[in-house]
Sequence to fold (590 residues):
Amino acid sequence: MRIKKLYVLIFLLSSCTIIKEQPKFVPAGDYTLVTLSSKYVSHTSTQLVYTVKILLLDNFLTLGDYSILGEGNFALSGNGVSAISNFGITQVNFLPVESSIVLLDQSGSYAKTDPDNLRSQLVSKYLSDCSQVNFFQLGGFSKGGRLFNEPVEFLTNGFTNAWQAPAQGLYTLAQQTGGQSNLYDAINTSVNSFSVTPPNATRNCLVLMNANDQASSLSLNSLLQNASSINMHVNLTCVDSSVNKLSAASLAMQTGGWLAVCNTPKQMVTVIGNWNRLTSGQATAYNFTVTLQPDIALSSGDEILTKVYLLNSSVNSAYLYVKIPENENAIAFFMAIEPAGLWSTN
Amino acid sequence: MRNVMLFFLMSFTAHSLFAQRFNFGVNFQYHVLKQVSLDKEWIVPSTSYAIYHATDNRWKFFSAGQSILIGTTFQLDYKKIYVVLEPDFNLNTYNYTVGYPTSPGVEENLTFKSLFYQIDAPLYVGYQFHSSSLLRYSFFSGGSISVPYHLETSFVTTKTNSGTLYSQFSRNDMKNILYSNKPYPNFLCGFAVHYSSLVRVDVRYIHRMNYPGTEYKATYNTVGVALTYYLPLSLLKKKIYYEN
Fold:
């Protein structure tokens, strides 16, 4: 009798399952390279050395990062001959973010870069994810388009963690495209918005970029100074691969943010789907040192852009930006103090 | 609703004690005129992050879905009144088209399709108000219980979007909005033409009595045609009102 009771108990226990809430559906993505950092180490007139961290996002959001590639899978191209050394894999822990500002480029049209408006679903997912741990502001920007307010039309009244109403506003934004990009003015507006947050708070600006800046009154250099003054990090997701990579990479890298240049809507889906993890979670990145022997002699203040891509692959390219410091004192400064970044590494 | 159905069932049972004729037959039904309507303009599903624009709540022939029913008919007659119980198997489909905003003034049309295998059990009372030598005419009204037991969801695709629709949207987004797995009650009424005691043709209207979910009020109306063949069984035959 006891054995029969035991069999019944085992049967009941084996038939019990913990019912987990099904995750919500997200559109299909694709493998995507993201540049987390490229940091100056040293240079001479004929050689530049810098370290790089890049990420290969898996096409399935739940799988995180694709981290089994080796040094031989990567290739570099740019002005000169680049070589990879000290290749390895590292865990990156993004610093917890208290407040974020999300800016969506409403200039031009979604027709070429996102004809099915998948961005609205993914940004809605980000708002849902991040609202559990921090506050956010959401806005769209363009000049001379269909927005009612310029340079940024915010869908939220200040920082909030109530995400449902602004998430529905995303679909209204899809009907308000047009005009020219005023990217720098829009990001500068975020600088002002962050003034209400605590001084020591991690300040994150996530930008979805359709086109190069065309109509801003502020220059890139002025924006960089303003952003650096409040330690604001600009993370750029470019959905049009024809954007000016040098200025985009300069904006992201010099503020301590990351850069993704997407070729397809599916890659955009993957990047936005990982926004929450890339701002407050963990990642497994490839890190290596690049030694560049340029075609022309290097001098202080030069900006170097190098493309890194996967061999025999349709994955997008990542872009590495390095700016040679202006003078000898600056060199010592940059070598002694690591530029403010969003992460700590193990 | 349960009490109402219980009342009719008891009426059917009680009516059998006084019935003058009992008929048994098979029925075939085809419902093609349907209306699915939602009370809100914007739908936010719980299964994805999309949002849909509900704009098309019209009555439609075929394009809102079809229902094919086959089953049996148990009919008890007493003078001019008859009571019918019709357990049926129902292959029930509903199509509902929504818009998904993609650009200024442009929405991508998505048609969600739900297919149910379900058991329907209509129970209704009819009144024969006119007769001729061969034909009798009646109105009937009652209710039915629908018990779905198998569900399939899909999109209605075209050549241009068949390859991408399922990777961009969830076909289960209308769960607990347009459908659920729970049994539901219906109201039905109609007009019938009886040919002798062999055939009955009727046109019936069916209205779902509850909503699939709690947040959105989805209303279902159906109009269809039913054809009933009675088996030539002399069961419980007594003198009835139209015999001399």
In short: Chain B is about 10% helix and 55% strand. Chain B has a mean pLDDT of 88. The helical segments of chain B are 2-18, 165-168.
